[in-house]
Write a structure and sequence with these properties.
The complex is a heterodimer of chains A (152) and B (746). Chain A has helices at 20-27, 71-74, 82-89, 99-112, 118-125, 135-151, and strands spanning 2-5, 8-11, 46-49, 52-55, 68-69. Chain A is of the alpha+beta class. In chain A, the strands form 2 sheets. Chain A has a 3-stranded antiparallel beta sheet with strand order 4-3-5. Chain A has a two-stranded antiparallel ribbon with strand order 1-2. Chain B folds into 3 domains: 13-105 and 140-238, 2-Layer Sandwich (Aldehyde Oxidoreductase, domain 4), CATH 3.30.365; 247-317 and 376-452, Aldehyde oxidase/xanthine dehydrogenase, molybdopterin binding domain (Aldehyde Oxidoreductase, domain 4, 2-Layer Sandwich); 323-368 and 464-741, 2-Layer Sandwich (Aldehyde Oxidoreductase, domain 4). In chain B, 29% of the residues lie in helices and 25% in strands. Chain B has 18 helices and 28 strands. In chain B, the strands form 7 sheets. In chain B, strands 11-12-9-19-16-17-18 form a 7-stranded mixed beta sheet. In chain B, strands 1-2-3-4-5 form a 5-stranded mixed beta sheet. Chain B has a 5-stranded mixed beta sheet with strand order 14-22-21-20-15. The radius of gyration of chain B is 27 Å and the shape is globular. Classes of the chains: A alpha+beta (152), B alpha+beta (746). At the A-B interface, helix 1, helix 2, helix 3, helix 4 and helix 5 of A face helix 5, helix 7 and helix 17 of B.
């Protein structure tokens, strides 16, 4: 089957029920997408599919529909997305393992909601776990990113 | 190699050695006429250098042996070296280095000694020194006990200073200009005429010189880096998905493995049927390992699927099957025969309670998983006479020893490469995953084997926090706390943990009473007794260890007594506290939150204090009793750390650690049923989420001349402050965790 990731089409030969998470990590080498729970509880595997944030552990290979964007496709160290620059500015990461998923959830959110309220941020971002508990900084970084994006 | 001289009054000998194309600076250890088990491998007069600074044509590398699990350890270690070396943090590489016994952790032993951190007497200091020697004996390169900062504070600055002065001596020799006329900046030596020489260009000359050993460390008022906010060296990588963790590690020709071992932990495997698993796509091998089975496949998911398809009959658990028996075992422990320690026994608690109105309370704290978000993994490659291990671990030297023993390969031929960890919280002080990966790799010589635990397997085999129980009795008189007696029962964490490493624990386990016996309060009649329960399910060091349960018991009971006395919670704690730096953190937190201010209806505040790992920490929680349950509003933390190395990292670490502690106190527990852990994933082992995180203000105090690490001390007071705040808002005492079993939270 064919799958487009970050603008490039790849051919993969996998079982129809292999989760997108493992297609990305083990078959295509996009290790920025993280495995945390496998049951849609932690959000570490969040990617964009057709512009929407989805938990890639819950998308079977046969259900992949449209372009997939991973954290590597959102931006790179040399050309960061507004979300990523905000994450750097606020120095959000401790262990950092959940952060790719946090940033993918946040990126989809601020693109749809340019002026998010605190309650909206809390509601949407609560789908992603941070075991280090860096929530105050994630919250602040989402606000900064939204502000910077709406200025741009 | 430099000609070495002993430097009196100094613990560490800093020196240099020539390396291919450059020079390395670090800590020397001698073979001396006196027995020093650290140095058995060396011949007389020979010295081994453990480098912290490496300079060659490719650049400047700072070596940071304490592991990075998210707490910023690498960045702190790099900052300590860079401050004295005169390099900028963005011009150096940071490398964790290979495990070496000379990287032993001198600070970790100190906290095991039977003296409170507030005790600076001769006996206390000399006993800490003995504990330090024990650590040396074990050659422990361990990241734990919030020791990275205290262990590195002096050592790494000295290494940086010796390297800088030796580089200057090399520049002097090359240019003929006196050392005193040379200055250093940003990795360069600058001459009076403005000529700039890069450190890299001086490396070869420096290697041929005696290292300059007499150095004076800079006064903190001159610091450029320490005490100031900097970008962590891993921030960009961790903000772009570029950071590779252990689970992301890849080798050419690598195969993926999954395991299932007896969920009745330590139990045997009776039989298994791999008929289905063997023929699944991508599966190369199904094999028995200690206590279970392993599957090797060409992809992580396929390996996990196939492991789950193996039908297995498990043997019984070597501990009680159900929780009620675990609690009963603790409850049965409160007797003289199982008394483990009575480190505090001031006044006469028996006489004081005779005929008095005695206040009594019982407390419980559950098993908890560390559950770092990155499931644990290890890559092991066994080849002819050599083994390589790539994994995120806090105990690289023990891993090296255990893999050597398992494979029969010479200790020096076992190479442990420590990878970045997606959290640990004490989880990676265990090395079962490496042993299992090694067993598999031994069956597939020459093939790198990557073993990844599924979340379910990781939870089933988590070496949890201890369960613990406490009984408090006390009296009050004339509006003051007069008597406080606290008995604490738990199995020994340290014995369980050391037992898995083939070591035994001599004497009492002071973690059973840590965070309780060692508190700086002068209560007229004050007794803290530890009772050692029998070994139950395997337990391990969970962020802040004994204090994680005991501060909850100690400070909630103190709160109950102060309430009974009718005194103000802050004022009475201050009145009872004799230790000046501890009083200052209480005063600071009171000032930060404006303690005593009138609160809106349904709001309540609780304060709690705990001295752990040498850090006096006071916390206040403010919450609202809403119609949907308790809602956390605000929290304030003040902690005495001696020096805040980076205020930005400090704030993040403390805020996160407080959230960590509150989340577990509210909603998390591990329970056993039929000998198996019941919570297999984050749906049942719940965790704090953003909407539950309060607004958190933190302050680091610098009154203590000793410097302390802050990886753990924010955890112990949090649950107590929460329970005390709930009482203030609702009048309901919550004496057991998780608290959501007794009261609703939003």
């Amino acid at each position: 089957m064919k799958i487009t990731v970050n603008g490039i089409e790849h051919k993969v030969d996998v079982e129809p029920d292999m989760p997108l998470l493992w297609v990305l990590r083990d078959e295509l080498g996009f290790t920025g997408t993280k495995y945390g729970c496998g049951i849609a509880q932690c959000g570490a595997c969040t990617v964009h599919m057709n512009g929407e944030a989805v938990k890639s552990c819950q998308v079977a290979a046969e259900d992949i529909d449209g372009e997939v964007i991973t954290i590597e496709g959102l931006g790179t160290p040399d050309a960061m997305h507004a979300i990523q620059s905000a994450w750097v500015e606020h120095q959000v990461a401790q262990c950092g393992y959940c952060q790719p998923g946090q940033m993918m959830t946040a990126a989809a959110f601020v693109m749809e909601t340019p002026e998010p309220t605190n309650d909206e941020i809390d509601e949407v971002m609560s789908s992603n776990l941070c075991r280090c508990g860096a929530y105050p900084r994630i919250r602040a970084a989402v606000k900064t990113a939204a502000k910077n994006l709406s200025k741009a | 190699m430099g000609n070495l001289k002993t430097i009196a009054r100094r613990t560490f000998l800093i020196g240099s050695t020539a390396i291919i194309g450059g020079v390395a600076f670090g800590v020397y250890r001698y073979k001396t006429p006196y027995a020093n088990p650290l140095l058995n491998d060396l011949s007389e007069g020979e010295a081994a250098l453990t480098p912290y600074v490496r300079i060659d044509a490719s650049g400047i590398t700072l070596i940071t042996p304490r592991a990075e699990s998210g707490q910023g350890a690498h960045s702190v270690q790099a900052a300590l070296i860079a401050e004295e070396l005169d390099v900028e943090l963005d011009q150096v590489d940071v490398d964790p280095g290979m495990p070496d016994k000379a990287y032993y952790n001198t600070a970790l032993g100190a906290d095991g000694a039977p003296f409170a951190a507030t005790d600076d007497s001769f006996m206390a200091n000399s006993t800490r020194t003995v504990m330090d020697s024990l650590m040396k004996f074990m050659g422990m390169q361990i990241t734990g006990g919030s020791t990275t900062v205290p262990d590195s504070y002096l050592k790494l600055r000295l290494a940086g200073a010796v390297a800088r002065e030796t580089i200057k001596a090399a520049a002097s020799q090359k240019t003929g200009i006196a050392v005193a006329d040379l200055i250093t900046k940003a990795g360069k030596v600058i001459t009076p005429s403005g000529t700039v020489i890069r450190y890299e260009e001086l490396a070869a000359t420096a290697a041929s010189l005696d290292p300059v050993e007499e150095v004076i460390l800079r006064d903190p008022s001159l610091w450029r880096i320490l005490g100031k906010q900097h970008q962590r060296h891993d921030t960009v990588a961790k903000s772009t998905g570029a950071q590779a963790y252990g689970i992301d590690f890849k080798r050419d020709g690598m195969m993926h493995a999954a395991v299932r071992t007896n969920p009745r932990r330590g139990g045997k495997i009776i039989s298994y049927d791999d008929t289905k698993a063997k023929v699944m796509r991508g599966v190369q091998k199904v094999l028995p390992i200690t206590g279970g089975i392993a599957v090797v496949a060409d992809n992580t998911w396929r390996a996990i699927q196939a492991a789950n398809a193996v039908e297995i009959e498990w043997g019984p658990a070597p501990y009680p099957s159900d929780m009620s028996a675990h609690w009963q075992a603790l409850s049965d422990t409160f007797n003289e025969d199982q008394q483990d320690s009575r480190q505090r026994d001031d006044g006469d608690v028996i006489a004081a309670m005779d005929g008095a109105n005695v206040i009594e309370a019982k407390y419980r704290a559950p098993y908890l998983a560390h559950a770092p978000l990155e499931p644990i993994s290890a890559v092991v490659e066994v080849s002819e006479g050599r083994v390589d291990v790539w994994t995120g671990t806090q105990i690289p030297r023990l891993v090296q020893k255990n893999v050597s023993k398992l494979t029969g390969v010479n200790f020096d031929e076992v190479h442990v490469h420590v990878l970045v960890m997606g959290g640990s919280f004490g989880h990676r002080l265990e090395d079962r995953v490496v042993k299992e990966a090694t067993e598999i790799a031994m069956e597939m010589s020459g093939v790198p084997i990557k073993l990844t635990y599924s979340r379910e397997e990781n939870m089933a085999h988590t070496d949890t926090r201890q369960i613990a129980m406490a009984r408090g009795r006390g009296t009050v008189k004339n509006g003051q706390v007069e008597t406080m007696e606290l008995g604490i029962a738990m199995p020994s964490v340290i014995a369980s943990q050391m037992g898995r490493q083939g070591l035994s624990l001599p004497g009492p386990d002071l973690q059973i009473v840590a965070g309780a016996w060692d508190q700086p309060f002068s209560i007229p009649n004050y007794r803290i007794t530890g009772y050692r329960a029998p070994e139950l399910a395997p337990i391990s060091s969970w962020r802040s260890v004994g204090a994680s349960t005991n501060a909850f018991f100690h400070d909630v009971f103190l709160d109950e007594l102060i309430h009974a006395a009718g005194a103000d919670q802050m004022e009475e704690r201050l009145r009872l506290c004799w230790h000046e730096p501890s009083r200052k953190v209480l005063e600071k937190v009171a000032e930060m939150c404006n303690w005593g201010a009138t609160l809106a209806p349904n709001k309540g505040r609780g304060v709690a204090f705990c001295m752990s790992f040498g850090v006096a920490t006071a916390e206040v929680i403010e919450l609202t009793n809403t119609k949907d349950g308790i809602k956390l509003d605000k929290a304030w933390v003040a902690a005495e750390v001696g020096k805040v190395i980076d205020p930005n990292m400090f704030e993040n670490l403390v805020q996160g650690g407080l959230n960590w502690a509150l989340g577990h106190a509210i909603m998390s527990e591990i329970t056993y049923s039929d000998g198996m852990v019941e919570q297999k994933n984050f749906d049942t082992f719940e965790s704090l989420r953003m909407y539950q995180s309060p607004e958190i203000k933190v302050a680091g105090l610098e009154n203590d001349e000793n410097v302390h690490g802050m990886g753990e001390p924010m955890v112990p007071p949090a649950a107590a402050a929460l329970s005390n705040a709930i009482f203030a808002a609702t009048g309901q005492r919550v004496r057991e965790m998780p608290m959501n079993k007794f009261i609703d939270f939003v």
